[in-house]
Amino acid sequence: MAPLIVLFVVTGVTRFVGWLGFTAWLDSWPHTVRLGLAAMFALTASAHFLPPRRDALIAMVPPRLPAPARLVTLTGILESAGAVGLLIPIFAPAAAACLAVLMVVMFPANVRAARSGEGLQTMPLPLRTLVQIVFIGACVLAAF
Fold first, then answer.
1. H/E stretch holding 142
2. DSSP category for residue 89
3. What is this structure's pTM?
């Protein structure tokens, strides 16, 4: 739930600052959503490297996939790179699109965690699916 809160708070605060007229760049939903997503992915990427969350993420990897620890490290690197890419205007659309694809690819781990009770899954699968749709929708908005 923390990533969703970070996304909403950072997006809302930066959009409010833009609405107040401090900077025209922030008077745009795609721009402020990029900042919210960057903060959210910085938060989620940290879990890929720091115990005990790293161990829980490794447990979420479906058993048919090889080298779960390496996959968790790789996805953490991709999330970190995506967060940085969202902050660089020329790369932001591509970063947002790539992060949307990454979330689709990683969703089976969330399904497995919801069904098995392993890993960081703390939401029932229908709610987790809805949250994932919000994240992907934010990436689509940020891509434009």
1. helix 125-142
2. T
3. 0.91
